[in-house]
Automatic annotation (TrEMBL):
One GO MF term attached to the UniProt entry: polyubiquitin modification-dependent protein binding
Domain of life assignment: Eukaryota
Name listed for the protein in its UniProt record: Ubiquitin-like domain-containing protein
Positions of region (Disordered): 75-98
């Protein structure tokens, strides 16, 4: 399950929990259930595009905590007033029909740094590392670098951040850099600065050694990527096992590791009719890496019976 935030063109914003494979029509029906807005009066928009009823969450770019525009198409209302009469000989009553047309005015929201609250988080996709990171629009670019430093161990003083074809400067906020939910960010590294030459003297020879900074073996920080993750895997039978995986490995590799464990007779039972993986109540995509799913040391991945199919 995941939370979506709705921003109606009139009324107060609200949040609804939806399923990973819900269609837009099913989401509209939930809006009707909880807020009384008829399905035929709803138009959902995301990043300036109207979302068709048959589109499902899984096949869209909508993530957990995304914000959707809700345009409410109010119908034309008519009222009929009949003048009372008690004499059957009187001519037919005078009927007055009043038609009230409600005109919808679209007001584009403009955010300023002071208007963004901490609850309005955005997810940025770090293209260089293949992971998403959650930030506040008021955070500075320097704050973004510090978070990447915590995740990857790369000194933020060496990072150069690019988005929308432009270099982002440390003192600017993400909002000022026009970064929104789902924006792509690229990180490049400045060349390391070599340390001064050192002279080491022994009783027999003099050896001159140049010490080079080895801050990273490649652009993405080799040392962090080669460090194994210890994860717990729990089956539907209650069996639990701890495995070591590479953060860069696709989740599909976990299926192979479990088959190896099973063939060794460890006693870890797997569903015969098929299964899929769940992490933090979300279905895991087996062609994506553990780092892409933000799996951390000691986390638990659950096995659910069945198979995953797209919604209609």
């Amino acid at each position: 399950m995941m939370d979506l935030y709705f921003e109606p063109d009139k009324g107060t914003p609200f949040c609804i929990e939806v399923g990973y494979f819900d269609t837009m029509k099913e989401i509209k029906e939930k809006v009707t259930k909880y807020h009384g807005i008829p399905v035929h009066e709803q138009t959902l928009m995301f990043k300036g595009r109207i979302l068709p009823d048959d589109l499902n969450i899984h096949n869209s770019n909508i993530f957990d905590s995304s914000h959707l525009k809700l345009m409410i198409n109010s119908p034309t209302r008519s009222t009929t007033t009949t003048s009372p009469t008690t004499d059957p000989q009187q001519p037919p009553p005078h009927v007055t029909t009043t038609s009230t047309t409600i005109t919808k005015v679209k007001i584009e929201e403009t955010f300023s740094p002071s208007s963004c609250s901490s609850s309005q988080k955005i997810k940025l996709f770090l293209k260089t590392f293949g992971v998403a990171i959650e930030m506040d629009p008021n955070d500075s670019v320097l704050k973004l670098k510090e978070k990447i430093n915590e995740m990857e161990g790369i000194p933020f003083s060496r990072m150069i951040v690019h988005a929308n074809g432009n270099e982002l400067h440390d003192h600017k906020t993400l909002h000022e850099c026009q970064l929104v939910d789902g924006s792509e960010v690229e990180i490049t590294l400045k060349p390391p600065t070599p340390t001064p030459m050192m002279t080491i003297t022994t009783t027999t020879t003099t050896t001159t050694t140049t010490a080079l900074c080895n801050l990273s073996m490649n652009l993405m920080g080799h040392n962090n990527y080669t460090k194994k993750l210890k994860i717990n895997v729990m089956s539907k039978y209650g069996d639990k096992i701890t495995l070591e995986v590479s953060p860069l490995s696709n989740v599909g590799e976990l299926r192979k590791e479990l088959q190896k464990v099973r063939s060794q007779g460890v006693g870890f039972r797997l569903p015969e009719e098929g299964y899929f993986f769940i992490y933090k109540q979300n279905v895991m995509e087996e062609d994506q890496s553990f780092r892409w799913h933000q799996v951390a040391q000691g986390d638990t991945i659950e096995i659910f019976n069945g198979c995953v199919t797209g919604g209609s």
